[in-house]
């Protein structure tokens, strides 16, 4: 009698271990899937950042060229052209502001 009682307890413990092992296996599978998804997302984000970096580099080259030409204009004594440029920029911003307010 005592032996059957002990084997029942042992069987209960074994069943509980099996359930816990299966639960742990399911959690490990979910974590593996999540880590694969995170790795994929990180690679995609790195590609986007690399593209943005090259875009910013090319924009920086364009802006530095424009600033060089603008500084040449100011050094040449053509202040009138600089004022036209400033007024044109203010006009464009004013038009954009009006269009934004009318929306």
Q: Structural class from helices and strands?
A: mainly alpha
Q: Counting H and I runs of at least 4 residues, what is the number of helices? A: 2
Low-confidence stretches: none
| Main beta-sheet strand count, sense and barrel state | none
Order of helices and strands: HH
Distance between the termini: 87 Å
Radius of gyration: 35 Å
Instruction: Look at the structure and give the mean pLDDT.
Output: 86
Q: What report would you give on this structure?
A:
The chain is mostly helical and 103 residues long. 95% of the residues lie in helices and 0% in strands. It contains two helices and no strands. The longest helix has 74 residues. The mean pLDDT is 86.
List keywords for this structure.
mainly alpha
Brief overview:
With 103 residues, the protein is an all-alpha fold. The protein contains two helices and no strands. The longest helix is centred in the middle third of the chain and has 74 residues.
Topology:
Elements: H1 2-75, H2 79-102
